[in-house]
Amino acid sequence: MRLKVLLPTKILIDEEVTKVVAEAEDGSFCILPRHIDFVAAMVPGIFSFTSGEGEEFLGIDEGILVKCASTVTVSTRKAIRSRDLGMLKRTVQEEFRALDEREKKTRTILAKLEADFARSVFEKM
Questions:
Q1: Per the database record, which ranges form the ATP synthase F1 complex delta/epsilon subunit N-terminal domain (predicted)?
Q2: Which pLDDT band, with edges at 50, 70 and 90, does 67 fall under?
Q3: Amino acid 43: pLDDT
Q4: pLDDT > 90? residue 61
Q5: pLDDT, tens digit, for every residue of 74-102?
Q6: Cα dist. 41→27, 75, 86, 103, 108 in Å?
Q7: What's the half-sphere exposure (Cβ side, CA atoms, 13 Å) at 5?
Q8: Three-state SS string across the chain, please?
Q9: Of 55, 54, 35, 49, whose CA–CA distance to 5 is shortest?
Q10: Separation CA 99–CA 88 (nearest Å)
Protein backbone atom coordinates (compact mmCIF):
# COMPACT_ATOMS: atom_id res chain seq x y z
CA MET A 1 0.00 0.00 0.00
CA ARG A 2 1.14 3.59 -0.57
CA LEU A 3 1.77 5.94 2.38
CA LYS A 4 1.71 9.68 1.83
CA VAL A 5 2.41 12.07 4.70
CA LEU A 6 1.58 15.66 3.82
CA LEU A 7 2.79 18.75 5.67
CA PRO A 8 1.64 22.30 4.85
CA THR A 9 4.87 23.02 2.96
CA LYS A 10 5.95 19.65 1.55
CA ILE A 11 5.35 15.93 1.08
CA LEU A 12 7.33 14.25 3.86
CA ILE A 13 6.74 10.62 2.81
CA ASP A 14 5.53 9.03 -0.41
CA GLU A 15 6.49 5.35 -0.43
CA GLU A 16 5.28 1.76 -0.37
CA VAL A 17 4.63 0.29 3.11
CA THR A 18 3.27 -2.96 4.52
CA LYS A 19 1.86 -1.70 7.82
CA VAL A 20 0.83 1.58 9.47
CA VAL A 21 0.17 2.13 13.19
CA ALA A 22 -1.42 5.40 14.35
CA GLU A 23 -3.30 6.75 17.34
CA ALA A 24 -6.76 8.33 17.44
CA GLU A 25 -8.71 9.69 20.40
CA ASP A 26 -10.08 6.25 21.23
CA GLY A 27 -6.70 4.45 21.00
CA SER A 28 -4.15 2.99 18.61
CA PHE A 29 -5.00 1.18 15.41
CA CYS A 30 -3.14 -0.76 12.74
CA ILE A 31 -3.72 -0.64 8.99
CA LEU A 32 -2.68 -3.52 6.75
CA PRO A 33 -3.01 -3.58 2.93
CA ARG A 34 -6.49 -5.16 2.79
CA HIS A 35 -7.97 -3.01 5.57
CA ILE A 36 -11.33 -1.35 4.90
CA ASP A 37 -11.43 2.32 3.87
CA PHE A 38 -11.93 4.83 6.66
CA VAL A 39 -11.02 8.24 8.09
CA ALA A 40 -9.55 8.94 11.54
CA ALA A 41 -8.65 12.10 13.45
CA MET A 42 -5.20 11.47 14.91
CA VAL A 43 -3.93 12.84 18.21
CA PRO A 44 -0.36 14.06 18.81
CA GLY A 45 1.98 11.13 19.33
CA ILE A 46 4.11 8.50 17.62
CA PHE A 47 3.09 7.17 14.21
CA SER A 48 4.91 4.10 12.86
CA PHE A 49 5.10 2.36 9.53
CA THR A 50 6.90 -0.67 8.13
CA SER A 51 8.48 -0.76 4.70
CA GLY A 52 11.09 -2.90 3.00
CA GLU A 53 13.73 -1.02 4.98
CA GLY A 54 12.17 -1.88 8.36
CA GLU A 55 10.14 0.05 10.90
CA GLU A 56 10.28 3.85 11.02
CA PHE A 57 8.63 6.38 13.28
CA LEU A 58 7.11 9.82 12.96
CA GLY A 59 6.44 12.18 15.81
CA ILE A 60 3.30 13.98 14.69
CA ASP A 61 1.05 16.74 15.80
CA GLU A 62 -2.68 16.13 15.43
CA GLY A 63 -3.84 15.30 11.93
CA ILE A 64 -6.20 13.40 9.66
CA LEU A 65 -5.60 9.91 8.28
CA VAL A 66 -7.55 8.71 5.23
CA LYS A 67 -7.32 5.11 4.03
CA CYS A 68 -8.80 4.83 0.52
CA ALA A 69 -8.21 1.77 -1.67
CA SER A 70 -4.46 1.07 -1.51
CA THR A 71 -3.41 4.56 -0.33
CA VAL A 72 -3.04 5.87 3.21
CA THR A 73 -2.82 9.66 3.29
CA VAL A 74 -1.90 11.52 6.47
CA SER A 75 -2.21 15.29 6.70
CA THR A 76 -0.59 17.00 9.69
CA ARG A 77 0.90 20.39 10.54
CA LYS A 78 4.10 19.06 12.12
CA ALA A 79 6.03 15.79 11.81
CA ILE A 80 9.52 14.55 12.61
CA ARG A 81 10.87 11.33 11.06
CA SER A 82 13.33 8.94 12.76
CA ARG A 83 14.31 5.30 13.18
CA ASP A 84 15.42 5.88 16.80
CA LEU A 85 12.29 5.91 18.96
CA GLY A 86 13.99 7.23 22.12
CA MET A 87 15.63 10.14 20.31
CA LEU A 88 12.40 10.89 18.45
CA LYS A 89 10.43 11.11 21.69
CA ARG A 90 12.88 13.67 23.13
CA THR A 91 12.99 15.64 19.86
CA VAL A 92 9.20 15.74 19.63
CA GLN A 93 8.89 17.02 23.18
CA GLU A 94 11.51 19.73 22.58
CA GLU A 95 10.29 20.75 19.11
CA PHE A 96 6.59 20.77 19.94
CA ARG A 97 7.21 22.50 23.29
CA ALA A 98 9.17 25.27 21.50
CA LEU A 99 6.40 25.64 18.94
CA ASP A 100 3.78 25.72 21.69
CA GLU A 101 5.68 28.54 23.42
CA ARG A 102 5.81 30.53 20.17
CA GLU A 103 2.11 29.91 19.59
CA LYS A 104 1.30 31.13 23.13
CA LYS A 105 3.29 34.33 22.55
CA THR A 106 1.58 34.86 19.21
CA ARG A 107 -1.86 34.35 20.75
CA THR A 108 -1.02 36.85 23.51
CA ILE A 109 0.04 39.44 20.93
CA LEU A 110 -3.09 38.82 18.84
CA ALA A 111 -5.34 39.13 21.90
CA LYS A 112 -3.71 42.46 22.74
CA LEU A 113 -4.20 43.70 19.16
CA GLU A 114 -7.85 42.64 19.22
CA ALA A 115 -8.42 44.39 22.55
CA ASP A 116 -6.72 47.57 21.29
CA PHE A 117 -8.82 47.47 18.11
CA ALA A 118 -12.06 46.97 20.06
CA ARG A 119 -11.14 49.79 22.46
CA SER A 120 -10.45 52.18 19.56
CA VAL A 121 -13.79 51.31 17.92
CA PHE A 122 -15.72 51.94 21.16
CA GLU A 123 -13.90 55.23 21.79
CA LYS A 124 -15.02 56.54 18.37
CA MET A 125 -18.67 55.80 19.16
A1: 1-79
A2: very high
A3: 86
A4: no
A5: 999 888 888 888 888 777 777 766 666 67
A6: 11, 10, 25, 22, 28
A7: 24
A8: CEEEEECCCCEEEEEECCEEEEEECCEEEEECCCCCCEEEEECCEEEEEEECCEEEEEEECCEEEEEECCEEEEEECCEEEECCHHHHHHHHHHHHHHHHHHHHHHHHHHHHHHHHHHHHHHHHC
A9: 49
A10: 16
What predicted TM-score, i.e. pTM, was given to this entire model? Answer: 0.72
Backbone angles phi, psi at 43, to 5 degrees: -100, 160
Structural domains in the chain plus CATH codes: 2-124 (2.60.15.10)
pLDDT for residue 122: 74
